[in-house]
Amino acid sequence: MSGYYVSSYVKKKAVKYLSITQFEPTDARAAFPCFDEPDFKATFNITLGHCSYLNALSNMPLKERIPMLKHEGWTWSMFETTELMPTYLVAFSVNDFQGYAKHTSCNQKRVKFTTWAREASIREQLKYATEIGPRLLNYYEQLFDIKYPLPKMDQLAVPDFSAGAMENWGLITYREAALFYAPDVSSEADKQRVTNIIAHELAHQWFGNLVTMSWWDDLWLNEGFATYIATLGMEKMCCKWNAYEEESLDNMLAILSTDAYCSTRPIHQPVTTANQIGGLFDPITYRKGAVIIRMMHMFIGDMAFRLGLNNYLERHAYGNAKQEDLWQALTQIAHDHSSLPKDLCLQTIMDSWTLQKGYPLIKVRRHYANKCAVISQSRFQLQPEQQPSARQDQLFEQKRQYCWFVPISYTSELAHNFNSTAPSRKFGCVARQKASRCRCGCVICLENEWIILNVQLTAPYRVDYDSCNWRLLIDALKGLDFQQIHVLNRAQLIDDAMTLAWTGQRSYALALELLSYLSQEREYMPWRAALDQFLPIYRIVRQTDQYEIFQKFMLCLIEPIYKQLEGMREDSKQRHHVVHKTLIASWACRLQHADCVKSAMDYWQQLISARAANPVPPDLRAVVYCTAMRNGKAKDWQLMWELYCNSTVASEQRLMLQALGCTPKECLLQRYVQLIFSRKSLIRKQDALLVLGSIIRNEIGYRIAKQYYMQHFQLLYKYFWPNIRELASLLVHFSQQMSTEQELQQLTVLSSSRLLQRHTSRSCQRALEQAELNLAWRKERLLQFIGCLNT
Q1: Distance between CA atoms of 122 and 126, rounded to whole angstroms?
Q2: Beta-bridge partner residues of 372
Q3: Which helix (H) or strand (E) segment is 760 a member of?
C-alpha cells in the first residue's frame, strides 16, 4: 500500500480493481523518476492512460480526454498543470467510482468539492463527508485569511489504504472507515472521528501543501498544526461535542504518558534515511506538536496567533519553511500586539520544547508562614533517577540537565480565576538552583489556601505540590462546590496524583483519597483521566490473586456514574454525553457488572432474532459486541464473523473485527489469528493491526498472539514489509500486558532481531522499558496499592 499500487473490491461477486498512490514520505520515486525531497518543489503535468469507461483523477481538474490512437476503447486523460508542490503530494487514480459533488463559494471563488467512492458504498454514507468538507474549507479560509488556491477538491475513499488519510493537494485519499458515516448505523463517536480526520486533512492544504517543511526533521510543522487546527475546526462545526477541550485533553494525556519514557525523542528530530523518516509519524509529531501549539496559542492570545499564522503562510506560500521561520513570523506579530515581552522571542521559548525530549515536573513547595510558594523543575520520567537502568543511553540521559521555558499560570482558592490562561509570571528557565528560581521570578505569594498551577492544562508539564497543598485540594474536591475547580484541572489533578503514585513519588493513599471524590463527579474528562490511569493497573492486577479486590473496588467506584448515565439504556434524546456513556459502560462490562452484562446479552439476543434493522443502539455497539463475544458461545462468534462478512458499513466492520478478539476461547482466537494471514483472507491488510491489537488486549489472546509472533516471525516480516514499524508496534502492545521476569526475557529475545533493530530500534526500546516498568510496579507497589483498596 505504498507508491503507485492496486486496490480492489468485490462488486456483484466480481473483483474490481483501481489504482491509487501513496507517496509520503519517499515513495514517489517508486512511480516516476524524481528528486523525492520536500524542498524540491515543481509543477507537474500529469497524463493518465486508461480504459475509456473508467475515471481518472489527479491533483488538478481534468483538462481534456483524448482517444488513444490505435487502441480502441482507451483514453488519455490530461490534467491542468499543478501549483508548485513537493513530490509526496502528487496523487492520481484510475477507478470506476461514483462522485458526489457540491460547489462551495470560497472567497468569491466557486470550488468544486467532490467525494468519490465505490458504488457499493451507498450515497447516504457519503452525504456527511460531502457536506462537512466544504464547511471546513470555508472556515479555514476565514481563519487563515488566505483563499484555498485550487479550483477543486476531491475526497477519495480507498478500500485498501495503510494510513487513515493522506492530504494530497486537491485529491485527499482516505481509508473508507475514515470517510463514511451511515446515520442509522454509525455512532456519534464515528461522526466525530470522520469530522476530525477531514478537518485534519483540509488543514494540511495550508500547513504542508501551501507551505511545506524544508526537511522531514520539521514534519511536526505539518502534522502538529493539522492536529491542532482540526480541533478548532471541529469546535466550529459542532459546539455540543466540546471538541476543543476534549481533543486537547486527549492529546495532553497521550503525551504526558508517551513522552515520560526514556526512549522518547524530541519533536525536532534529525533524520537522514527513509526508515528514520517513517519513524517520525508518531504521537510526538502529531500530539505533542499539537499540544505545544495550543500552549503557544493560549499565551500569545488569539489575535496574535491568527495574524501570526497569516504572516507565516503569506511569507512562505508555495515555498518551504523551518520552525525558525514560524517563530520569527509569530514573534513579530506578538511584539506588535504586546502579547509577548519585547525582550523575549518565541524561538527562545519554543526551542526548549522542540529541541529536547520529555517534559518537566514542576515542584511547588510552599512556605505557609511566609505566605509564599517556590517552584522548581526537573525532567519527569516514569523511571525515576534513583532507579537507573542498565542501558547506557538512559544513564547518559540521567546526567543531562534539562530545562524548559515554562508558562506559569496559576490560581488559588480566593482568586479562583480559571478563565485566564496567560502566564502569571514572566517566562523563565526555572532551574534547580535557588538563585535561578528567584532570578526568574517564579516565587508566588498567597494566603493559606489551595493553589493550582497550569490553568486549564495549558502546557505539557506535571505538578507535584507539597503534602499540605495536596490535602487542601483533596478537601476542595470532596466538598460540595468541587466544580468551582475547572474540569480540565480536575482531570489534571487525577492524572498527576495517580502517575506520581505509580512512580512512588507520592503514595497511593493520597491518590486514591483524591479519587474518592469521583462519587460525585459527572463530567467526562475527569473520568477519562482516572480510567486511563487504572488501565495499566488492570492489565497487571488481572494476572494476580488480588484481582477480586481490584474488581470490587472498581465496581464500587463506577456504580454511581453508571446509574447516573442510565447504564446500558438507549439514550435516544442524547441527554448524556455519548462518549462518556460508552466509556463507563465498557468498563462496567469489562468488570462483569451484572446489569451491564445482562443488558448487553439481551441486546445481542435481540440482534440474533432481528430480521430487519439492527436493534442495538449505535453508540453502544462496541460494548455490546465485545461483551457478547466475551460471554457468548462459539456459535455467537461465528455469527459475528458472518455479520462482518456481510456488512457494507466500514465503521461497523471495524467494531466487529475488534469484538471478535474479545472471546476467551483459545480455539477461536487461534483461528482468528490464522484468518488474518490466510491466502484468501476476508480481513484486509490495512486492518491486520486492528485485529491483532484486539487479540493482544485479551488476557488469553495475548499469549496466543505472542506465541504466533515468535513462531512465525519471518512470515510476519514478509507480510508487513515495507511497513516494519507496524510489526514493531506489536511489541509495544505485548509489553503492555507483561509484568513478570519470564515475559521480560521473552520480549528481550523478540526485540533483539536485527531485522527489527535496523528499522525500529526506538519501538523496541519503548517495549522493553514498558515491560520493565510493569515488572517494577508489580514488585514494589502492587501490595501497597491493594492495601489502600482494602482500607
Answers
A1: 7
A2: 367, 445
A3: helix 754-780
Hey, what CATH topology would domain 214-354 get? Neutral Protease; domain 2 (1.10.390)
Of residues 100, 120, 104, the one with CA closest to residue 112? 104
For residue 731, the Cα-to-chain-centroid distance in whole angstroms is 19
CB 531 within 8 A of CB 583: yes
**Exposed, middle or buried by CB within 10 Å (0-12, 13-18, 19+), for 301?**
middle
Amino acid at 120: A
Task: Report the SS3 class of residue 429.
Answer: strand
Rounded Cα gap, residues 344 and 66, in angstroms: 60
363, containing H or E segment? strand 360-367
* pTM of the model as a whole: 0.94
List the one residue out of 175, 158, 281, 287 whose CA is nearest residue 726.
Answer: 281
Side chain identity, residue 254: A
Q: How far apart are CA 560 and CA 631, in angstroms?
A: 24
Q: Of 167, 176, 201, 769, which residue is the catalytic one?
A: 201
| pLDDT score of 762 | 87
Residue 666 annotated to the active site: no
Across-strand partners of 101? 114
Q: Cell numbers 472507515 correspond to what residue?
A: 177
CA 727 to chain centre: 19
Closest by CA position to 364, among listed 356, 353, 355, 372:
372
Determine the 3-state secondary structure of 552 from DSSP.
helix
DSSP state letter for 99: E
E strand or H helix at 152:
strand 152-158
Amino acid at 538: Y
The stretches in the chain having pLDDT less than 70 are 105-108, 121, 384-400, 425-443, 572-575
- Domain boundaries of the chain, sorted by first residue: 3-203, 214-354, 360-393+403-514
**Check whether domain 3-203 has CATH 3.20.70.20, yes or no:** no
Beta-bridge partners for 655: none
CA–CA distance, 657 with 301 (Å, rounded to integer)? 44
Distance between CA atoms of residues 83 and 101, nearest Å? 23
C-alpha cell at 607: 440482534
Tally of CA atoms within 13 A in the half-sphere of 134 that contains its CB? 21
Q: How far apart are CA 447 and CA 306, in angstroms?
A: 38
Pairing of strands 372-379, 410-412: unpaired
The confidence score (pLDDT) of residue 440 equals 40
Could you report the per-residue pLDDT of 233-290, keeping only the tens digit for each?
999 999 889 999 999 999 999 999 999 999 999 999 999 988 889 999 999 999 999 9
Virtual CA dihedral for 340, 341, 345, 348, nearest 10 degrees?
-110
What 3-state DSSP class applies to 411? strand
- Give, in order, the Cα–Cα distances in Å from 228 to each of 211, 303, 307, 445, 755: 17, 17, 17, 34, 35
3-state secondary structure of 769: helix
Residue tagged 438507549 (cell numbers):
570
The answer for 392, left when phi > 0, alpha when psi is -120 to 50, beta otherwise, is alpha
Q: Euclidean distance between the first and final Cα of the chain, in Å?
A: 54
- Phi, psi torsion values for 104, nearest 5 degrees: -130, 140
CA distances from 471 to 282, 374, 507 (A): 38, 18, 13
Q: What share of the chain is helix, strand, coil (3-state, %, to 5)?
A: 55, 15, 35
The domain made up of 360-393+403-514 has a fold known as Immunoglobulin-like (2.60.40)
In 3D, which of 149, 209, 200, 151 has the Cα closest to residue 175?
Answer: 200
CA 638 to mean position of chain CA atoms: 32
Tens of pLDDT along 634-662?
Answer: 999 999 999 999 998 999 999 999 999 99
| Rounded CA separation 544/643 (Å) | 36
256, three cell numbers: 504526558
Strand partners, 451: 412
CA angle 88, 263, 770 (to 5 degrees): 115
Peptide bond preceding 617 in cis form (omega within 30 of 0): no
